[in-house]
Amino acid sequence: MQVKIEVSGRHIHLSKPDAEKLFGAGFILSKFKDLSQTGQFAAKEKVKLVGPSGEIDKVRILGPYRKETQVEVSETDAKRLGLEPPVRDSGNLDLTPGIIVSGPVGEVVLKRGVILALRHIHVDPETADALGVENGDRVKVDVGGPRDLLFENVLVRVDSTFKLAMHIDTDEANAAGIDKGNNVGEIIVM
After folding, report:
1. What is the pLDDT of residues 123-169, one digit of tens each?
2. N or C: which end of the chain has fewer CB within 10 A?
3. 89 Cα distance to chain centroid
4. pLDDT at 182 over 90
5. Where in the sequence of the chain do the CATH 2.40.40 domains occur?
6. What is the pLDDT of residues 46-82, one digit of tens each?
7. What's the rounded Cα separation, in Å, for the pair 113 and 139?
8. What is the CATH topology of the domain spanning 120-189?
């Protein structure tokens, strides 16, 4: 079965308390555009990430708010910031490095929360049944083209609100030559 591949650039998910520290009391995210997954959106607002040896400005915030602030960067971004974050599934923040997040009103010093997002596929239950996979399973995805690449260890995430799509970071996309003209892969169930 084919899956659309979407490239996820560096971004941050904020908790409501952290958003208010960065932007002021009562702050509410402003929607810039909807993302492919139901209820997810890119906000108009951006922040600066400050690491031990570098910083990255204008980092997009994704909504809605989360229970805990989480920063997702690529390996290239991590080197620029001077960090060595682990590859993790979203929300698994144990033993991850922290970072300083700077906004127009204030800053937040995170003790943890920076990850390299584990490549994953969002799948609705019906498609998961058709593929013979369950939430938490791992599959492979073959990407053809001039830079043919086989992504292994792709996490399957199943939820009734999900639409079939694979998410990878910018480094992974560049390695596979993923762009607007080549953004599909073939799911291989192991």
Report:
1. 999 999 999 999 999 999 999 888 899 999 999 999 999 999 999 99
2. C
3. 9
4. no
5. 120-189
6. 999 999 999 999 999 999 999 999 999 999 999 999 9
7. 26
8. Barwin-like endoglucanases (2.40.40)
